[in-house]
Amino acid sequence: MNEQPGGATRIACAQGFWGDWLEAPARQVTGGPIDYLMMDYLAEVTMSILQKQRSRDRSLGYATDFVVAMERLLPEIVNRSIRVTANAGGVNPRSCAEAVIAAARKLGLRGKVKVGVVTGDDIMTRLDDLIARGHPFANLDTGEPLSGVRDAVQSANAYLGAWPVVEALGRGANIIVTGRVTDTGLTLGPMIHEFGWKEHDWDRLAAGTVAGHIIECGAQCSGGNCLKDWRSIRGLEDPGYPIVEAASDGSFVVTKHPNTGGRVSVATVTEQLVYEMGDPRAYITPDCIADFTTIRLEQRGVDRVVVRDIRGRPATDSLKVSIAYAAGYKAVGTLVYAWPEAMDKAARADAILRARLQRLGLKFEEVLTEFVGANATHGRLAGKPNPDIAEVQLRVGVRAQERAPVERFSREIAPLVLNGPPSVTGFAGGRPKVEEIVAYWPALIAKSEIRPVVEILEA
Q: What pTM was estimated for this model as a whole?
């Protein structure tokens, strides 16, 4: 442990999603002192993507970018005594951990790397038994039982909290690889471990949860994707990813390494706080309920925001379950129409395309048209498009339960280049790709049904 002056522990976020900036982990490790490197890879749809990969190759199903980062950084991580928490394991945490172990051995780090593997979140093979025993997995949005789409289910994962991460740290792991552990749990876990917080320290657990929520999206809280005064935010070619300096009483400072781009301010932190917040009085996680209305923010120097006075309540007796299921097929095609009368041309092309699809007798669940550059972002709020707009991208998407009508649609876009309205440009990439639709089904399950498992692998 590299505890900082004043008893604070520094937890640095280096990934906010799978596909985030590949240079961020190295910059966090080498840019200044940190104790923990937190890397969040999983979104709801990511689990189904990883499940597809694993179905094709049983050794896959995890975020391979994480292993690449570890191959690059393990010597520095070991030398600096940094510990890593990451949910990069996806639907195959053990294979991910084994890949990290192989990298450690290749780098001559035998005996210096212990990987904690957290499993128990994947309930795909248990679904039928759980349904038979009275767990309907009712959709949280519609109330429908899962039985209606059971045959199409591709993945099912319960959201685990911070305590399995705490166990892995307590057993000496310096790299922790998990499956579907909450974004916040990857930061809260180290704080519990460092400060000895108990399971009923609701205010402190809520504080650690808020800390995790603030940094879970990477540079989104340190100047990236910031709306307020965005023109004045400099250095985003080399953004400083966020760091939490956590204290045992639950207060913490959000900051970043010196001499990096971006900004940490009350505004940037506040914008991240309201991201995916829901009811501000009840931000529910497996570990506690955090009351966001009690949060107090204070700017204390350049790129330093103090967060304090957070209150929490007891956790619920349920866990959220993220279920992904196949819901048919889709394809999206685009054409760009140039001035003059670009909008009118695009609208006419859309009408022609729809008439041709109807004449062919094709049945779709939905045909969606967007005029990018005119109203795709704001829809009807955009008002009447400018008749002199320089260019408009016609974007048409279709979806259907069967693949055949979607495939035929993909063949109907290109002919408009020559047999539709004039001045088409920007048609590239060939026919629109037909893709399987993966839909999201949120549900709940009793905590008593889930048993996290922690295993330690040594290099």
A: 0.94
